[in-house]
Amino acid sequence: MSMLAGIPRFPVFGARLMDALPLAPLALASERMVASVVRRHPALLARLGAQTDKTFLLDAVDLPILFVLRPRVSEPRLDVYRRGAEPAWDARIAGPLAALLGMVHGALDGDALFFSRDIVIEGDTEAVLALRNAVDDAELDLPAEALALLGPLERFAEPPLRRALRIAERLTSVALSRAPGHAS
Amino acid sequence: MTMTKRLELVCPAGTPAALRTAVDAGADTIYCGFADETNARNFPGLNFSRDEMAAGIDYAHKRGAKVLVAINTFPRAGAGDFWRKAVADAEARAADAVILADIGLLAHVADQHPKLRLHLSVQAAAANADAINFYAREFGVKRVVLPRVLTVQEIAAINREIDVETEVFIFGGLCVMAEGRCSLSSYATGKSPNMNGVCSPASHVEYREEGGDLASRLGGFAIHRSPQGAPAPYPTLCKGCFRAGDHIGHVFEEPVSLDAAALIPQLADAGVVALKIEGRQRSRAYTEAVVSSFRRAVDAHLAGRPIPASDLRRLTEGQQTTAGAYRKTWR
Do A121 and B206 meet the contact criterion of CB atoms below 8 Å apart? Predict the structure, then answer.
């Protein structure tokens, strides 16, 4: 039985809006974010090992855009593409945005999402497993990663952002930040 | 009136983050392995470097938990030093015990590391009192992880004839074979679960969406096709679904997972001292949910309360659970 009914979907109007907007701001944010994540969590690439040479298609199926992760040790990249314009990839992880965020934030189990067919993996299974395990070990908190980009402004921006996230998580049931528990 | 003995909850950790999660969720003991073929969960991106193991053991010890290091594959001919070094490294990092399967490695530890506590892995498939007594007598094994082929009554019978501790699986993926003796994955991939530490290695697994179905292939062989909306299993041959003529079915077993929480009182009465949760390959979300649930169950048993119901089926392979051989009805 699929868990899909329990996994929230990104609002259609939001997806349409995203489709109409230029990609450049999101592309810039993604580029800076992945560089910051790798700098702040060096064990992530070490855990990926030889899989850092692979190209991952991160396909949030309820979004009009796709992310392509190239976790190179020399120059890690997270690029954004419109659907249909994505480059060749080695491994694809696809599912609703909420499922992908839930895995990143340690709120949902990747194997359980696979069993229930809420996520689909294709291509290089070894690369997918390595990425899943490396990200799970990194205990990422994407809001914290975004805040880290603000430098000295982080301490002013964090309290209101955390309050807003708590409200948004209650309303949407989406893991928008790291699941409660141990912080690395 | 007899006192209820506190059962030890032995929990999996595939990463340092999962170890910390398990400790914080109430694990008494964590089992984990080095990031190489010395342990039977040698998956990409999983397991511990030597430094990570030391830090993990330190984290657990500071919170009153123990760490067991699984070195439970069978050394390849000519590569024994690699396994012997893993044992020495585990002891140097203050592991509370090592979990071994190979007789040669057991003999080496008994001889060269006499202070290191020895547990016998389920991979050794010691399923009767004579075998267990042999391991205890010859190598000083202190605990045996029993294979998942025994009924509760058989476990009780074994415990009456041995002096070492017994640990049993209580939750997680089910291996339907006699552990340590299965070669199905080796036939399909050329890599042995028992020596290379990985059943159905990811490097040989391929998933493909085909007209709404999810097709799974292992070493190029189609082993399962899940129709749209149906649960997907792990890509293991023992849970594969095959067509023979007009018949389609599972040759060995349907995808299903073990959940013996309801049998905790009977297992305790049978003399078991430790309950083991499977799942070193799983995320910290799984670890937190399952360890917390079994912490409540074990505490309820100790307090004389009924075992509370859990909602763990959503996390399991096949999304259905069984008490497995503990309630054997097929022979």
Answer: no
Q: For residue A69, what are its two tokens?
A: 């992760």
Domain assignment present for A35:
yes
Q: Decide if B207 and A122 are in contact by the 8 Å CB cutoff.
A: yes
Strands A65-70 and A56-60, by their bridges, are antiparallel
Answer yes or no: do A125 and B207 touch at CB < 8 A: yes
Choose the mutation target among A122, A126, A140 for the interface with B, i.e. most B CBs under 10 Å.
Answer: A126
Find, among A99, A31, A13, the residue nearest to A59 by Cα: A99
User: Domain spanning B8-174+256-327: which superfamily?
Assistant: Aldolase class I (3.20.20.70)
| Band of residue A182 on the pLDDT scale cut at 50, 70, 90 | low
Per-residue pLDDT tens over the stretch B194-243: 888 888 889 999 998 888 888 999 999 988 888 888 888 888 888 888 88
A112, A116, A137: residue with CB nearest B17? A137
CA distance B60 to B13: 12
d(CA B21, CA B41): 19
Supply the ipTM of this predicted assembly: 0.92
Question: 């700098």: which residue's tokens?
Answer: A39
Whichever domain contains A47, its CATH number is 3.30.1050.10
A112/B315 Cβ within 8 A: yes
3-state secondary structure labels for all residues of A148-161: HCCHHHHHHHHHHH
- Whether B26 and B34 have beta carbons less than 8 Å apart is answered as no
Residue A70 lies in a domain: yes
Q: Note whether residue A177 is domain-resident.
A: no
CB within 8 A of A122, min separation 6: which ones? A91, A92, A94, B207, B208, B209
> Is residue A183 assigned to a domain?
no
